[in-house]
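User: Can you recover a sequence for this backbone? Please restate the input before giving your answer.

Assistant: Of course. Working from this structure:
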């Protein structure tokens, strides 16, 4: 009997997670003998559930909302990008039994933008909407692409200012409120607020997007999100949602666990075809 290596995603809610499907395809594609399940884990049961998972032979976990900060605290050691983002979406057991925490969300976004959509980030002016956990996770990986500057705009201005101050050492970054954006223009606007799926967007001035600018919503949905629609209405060159980022962050986690890079393009194509059908 072949014993399958065990992986899982913990979250609350988790029912609609696409991760088991994505990792099953990755495993088939790369001939890896593993299982990957989704498990409903409320925050108050997090550490018990993770202890139990790893003590029963589990190899690696993904953690999603609302567990990423708890996973950050749980990890025995963290990568630099996880350390900075104060959130962990990937846990991996090491040979000595310790648990490594990483955050693959930011690199997933950057890979989707650059490799899948052919965009150049170097030298571009970037606006990030929102100053919560999702924003924090993407700032350092974006700076690694030699962007010209990042502005963080948030409803609660202090949070934007504090987040910008935290990443000052990484590059040119400022925080402000939505009303302070004035007549600035950006090459890439990323929506990292939690508004989009409720059909809302933050109040944005007109002409915020530069000519041939791109919009990217970290959220994804079968229908275009409110922010994807805003991008289309504002003549974005591309107005994208986070489905590609989801698949890319999963591929990066798979690489951490298995040492093999799966091909993401066919998976993105499949998930896109399914939601358009
Ligand atoms: P996440 O981990 O998904 O980033 P979060 O840390 O709760 O979640 O952050 C949510 C982000 O969405 C915050 O930037 C929040 O703005 P505030 O810091 O002012 O709360 C933003 N957000 C949520 N609802 C919003 C709304 N209706 N309009 C504008 N921004 C909103």
């Amino acid at each position: 009997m072949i014993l399958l290596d065990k992986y899982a995603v913990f979250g609350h809610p988790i029912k609609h997670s696409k991760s088991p499907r994505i990792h099953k395809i990755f495993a088939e594609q790369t001939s890896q003998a593993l299982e990957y399940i989704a498990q409903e884990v409320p925050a108050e049961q997090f550490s018990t559930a993770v202890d139990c998972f790893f003590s029963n032979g589990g190899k690696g976990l993904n953690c999603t909302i609302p567990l990423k900060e708890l996973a950050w605290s749980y990890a025995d050691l963290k990568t630099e990008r996880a350390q900075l983002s104060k959130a962990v979406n990937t846990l991996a057991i090491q040979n000595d039994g310790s648990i490594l925490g990483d955050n693959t969300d930011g690199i997933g976004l950057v890979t989707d933008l650059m490799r899948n959509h052919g965009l150049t980030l170097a030298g571009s002016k970037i606006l990030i909407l929102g100053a919560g956990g999702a924003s924090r996770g993407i700032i350092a990986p974006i700076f690694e692409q030699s962007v010209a500057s990042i502005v963080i705009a948030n409803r609660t201005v202090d949070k934007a200012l504090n987040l910008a101050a935290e990443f000052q050492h990484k590059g040119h970054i400022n925080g402000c409120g939505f009303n302070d954006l004035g007549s600035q223009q950006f090459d890439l606007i990323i929506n990292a607020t939690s508004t989009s799926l409720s059909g809302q967007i933050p109040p944005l001035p007109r002409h915020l997007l530069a000519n041939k600018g791109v919009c990217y919503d970290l959220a994804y949905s079968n229908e275009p999100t409110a922010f994807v629609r805003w991008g289309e209405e504002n003549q974005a060159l591309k107005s994208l949602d986070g489905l590609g980022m989801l698949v890319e962050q999963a591929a990066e986690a798979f690489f951490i666990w298995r040492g093999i890079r799966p091909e993401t393009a066919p998976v993105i194509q499949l998930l896109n075809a399914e939601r358009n059908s």
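That completes the design. The chain has two domains: 5-103+244-276, 106-241.
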